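URGENT: need a sanity check before tomorrow's submission.

F., can you look over the ASCH domain-containing protein record below? I want to be sure the sequence and structure line up before it goes out.
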Amino acid sequence: MKAITILQPYAELIALELKHYETRSWPTNYKGKIAIHAGKELYPITPEIKQAVEASVFYSGPFHPTYIEDWTRGAVIAIADLVDCLKIDTADTYQGNMILLYNSKGLLISQFYSSDNEITFGNYSKGRYAWKLENIQMLKAPIPAKGRQGLWNWDDAAAKSEES
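Structure tokens as predicted:
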């Protein structure tokens, strides 16, 4: 199975279904199952974003460690379907900055305003790419794995045995 390493807190936000797009500087043609690997490092974030992340997790439902520093690192924590890779553009509107997502044929697929948490949890600069994730399933237990840059192949035997 293909995998992508994402630093915390962003990997956890995907696993908790609070983030449905992973933003990258590069596109991918891959579509299919993808393992979400929480990298060993914490992504440096501002106190404001840290507060937004922790508040979102706190209000997301079932008990979960609220503080980013307590989240799993160095393991696969979720499986998702990577269904599309969308080019990011922006537009200024009377309601504020709007993020526009286009597919490879140039069709507008999605749009949202900069006040949306999805924007807070990604880098939606013009010219970047938003990888759309669906059917996100958090694993019952993290599976330790060494991450890599880019898309990489993960031996998902442990995940398959968990599903059985």
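My own read: The chain has one domain: 2-85+131-163. The chain has a mean pLDDT of 85. If you see anything odd, call me.
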